Amino acid sequence: MQSRPLPLFAVFENQNKFREKPHETADSFGVCNQICIEEFTNKQSDQFQTLCHIGSGSFSDVFKVSSKEDGNIYAIKWTRTRHLDDSDRRTSLHDLYMLQQVVQHPNLVDFNRSWIQKGEIFTQQELCENGNLTSYLIHNDKLDEKVIWKLLFDIVLAVKQLHGQQIIHFDIKPDNIFISKNNYFKLGDFGLSHFKDFTSPISEGDSRYIAPEVLTQTLSTTSSDIFSIGVTVFEASERVIIPSDGPLWHKLREDPPHLEGRSQQLDQLVRSLLHSDPKCRPSVDIILHNPQEYNLF
Hints:
With 297 residues, the chain is α+β, with helices and mostly antiparallel strands. It folds into two domains: 23-126, Phosphorylase Kinase, domain 1; 131-294, Orthogonal Bundle (Transferase(Phosphotransferase), domain 1), CATH 1.10.510.10. 36% of the residues lie in helices and 16% in strands. The strands form three sheets. The chain has a five-stranded antiparallel sheet with strand order 1-2-3-5-4, with helices on both faces. It has a two-stranded antiparallel ribbon with strand order 6-9. A two-stranded antiparallel sheet has the order 7-8. It starts with 8 loop residues before the first helix and ends in a 10-residue tail after the last helix. 36% of the residues are buried. Residues 1-32 have low confidence and may be disordered. InterPro entries: CC_SR_Kinase, Kinase-like_dom_sf, Prot_kinase_dom, Protein_kinase_ATP_BS, Ser/Thr_kinase_AS. Residues 48-297 form the Protein kinase domain. GO terms for molecular function: ATP binding; protein serine/threonine kinase activity. ATP binds at residue 77.
């Protein structure tokens, strides 16, 4: 199958519209973030016009900007490395390295460039206007099954590109899946990604989405990404909060529940993605083999 994004607008037309960018209002962040915006603007005013603050991490902030060079809109992540310990600093630099290795693909967040300025890291990337999947699930009712299929195939296409480059993402979850202005689901955040032949100890990913073999054998394979896709799609379909431990966490790894009110095809596929044995999970090529049977076209 040709690696291309699936048709979009017919899939989304019956879904609730995205709310009007609540994350872009000043009131969402308060005075502290206004100071942060002013500091960022002072650092980058020669290259960009700062439009708004759109997200925060422990030691980073993300801004929507307009480039004075080409007039286009971008997202810039500003990481203040002076606050990071050695491990977090290595992760930030590793994220930059992996971003530079990934070949452009319609279902991967586009990387433009990065630079270090006075010990702080700035990363310029494509702006996904409609936020991430976590926000989308919060602001929308139960998703139509075609949207679930759209999510599944878009992310599998992204992972196919990565696996073709011998890269394991290792942190697939709603927080790291972004939605473009044209409603493409796009995979981003490569801080835990690594090449398949990586032999050093790997950092443990988010325990809610991590495959069982990673916990028991410290083993990360392409099949580990498939499991994380399964948990993500299960969450989007069932609208449940995925726990970091407890009965549901164990059930997803031992005897995955059936999807309620979904087609048999979707239910069977998602349960196969969650198989406890990584060798029994389908590859990206098998998943993508014949999407017509899932009534996507």
